[in-house]
Write a structure and sequence with these properties.
Number of helices: 15
CATH architecture of the largest domain: 3-Layer(aba) Sandwich
Pfam family, one: Glyco_trans_4_4
Radius of gyration: 22 Å
InterPro entries: Glyco_trans_4-like_N
Helix content: 40-55%
Strand content: 15-25%
Strand order of the largest sheet: 5-4-3-6-7-8-9
Organism: Chelativorans petroleitrophicus
Protein name: Glycosyltransferase family 4 protein
Shape: globular
CATH topology of the largest domain: Rossmann fold
CATH superfamily of the largest domain: Glycogen Phosphorylase B
Largest sheet: 7 strands, parallel
GO molecular function, one term: glycosyltransferase activity
Order of helices and strands: EEEHEHEHEHEHEHEEHEHEHEHEHEHHHH
Length: 395
Amino acid sequence: MYVSACSDGGGAVSGRRRPLRVVHCFRSPVGGIFRHVRDLCEAQAAAGYEIGIVCDSTTGGAFEDRLFEAIADKLALGVVRTPMQRHVGPGDLSAAWRTLRIIRRMKPDILHGHGAKGGAYARLFGTALRATGRRVVRLYAPHGGSLHYDADALSGRAFFMLEALMGRMTDHIFFVSEYENRAYKEKVGVPHAPASLIYNGLRPEEFVSIANASDAADFLYVGMMRDLKGPDLFIEALKETERRTGRTLSAKLVGDGDDRPKYMEQTSRLGLSDRVTFLPAMPAREAFALGRIMVVPSRAEAMPYVVLEALAAGKPLIATAVGGVPEILGVDSPALAAPSVSSLADRMVLALADEEAYRKLMPSEDVLRSRFSVSRMAERIEAVYQEALATALPR
């Protein structure tokens, strides 16, 4: 996609045509948001866009560094990482000023913000650039983000008020699940901007089953080491499943995060250290071979990639019925659990009773392919880009 080029990156149109410049802004380069952005960057670069990424420099590790290296040559505007704190605080002022200067140098036509912090920056800075005469489209994808807060809590009400205010600085909102769409309407209000429901997607090559390793554990967790994702629930449920079945069970937990030491201490306290292994983050398909049955014990989600990736790889799984997970597995799926120790243990006992029968309860490959496609996701987002750019005016 091409746009009319401007002689100074601002007002007067020179008559030339140049590639569309898209900057993806988000805070933490880990997990599903980072996977989503990488997929979009690859598809958009292949379509001829000039792409840039602005994100936090204090999260992620060696694994994420390798992922950046894998896409670096596709990003004409580069990757710029700068400190961004998760919570609102005094440091936001200096972080926001640094980020605004970075984005201004990239001269974007489209600012695509992901998550609460990235969405706030994209909309605030896009509006600031418009005030200087630049024609910038401001897009927002919550990916759960602030929508995970409790509507009855003071912090939640404050975030939802800010979301409502920034809604008037938004040209389009992308929701990755119907759950996220409903949550926004219930907690923030009907979007002021146009909105689209566009599911996350999988690549064709991901639909290849992965065999279990010879030393595969009974159960497997893959994800960030933070309470929101529920590793603590999984560890407790493993102990409860042992009690109910009378079996000694093993598990592997793959992922990085500040709360890992807490989960390791929990494992030791429950007497599970000899059969529960913690491993650093690695490619999901590599991790899938390490356990026979996946468990996704999240307390909150938007549309988790790890569920899609595991199913495409032929893994039977247990997942909590939060966010968009029921939209993947089906609302009546016996694989769905409540985010509680007892409910997770119920499903873990069920899966162990007849693993082959349990595997057949998963959605079919045809169903997954028809609903969750990277190419379809990128095409629909590109259509929104074109429509939003055509109607964007400096403010």
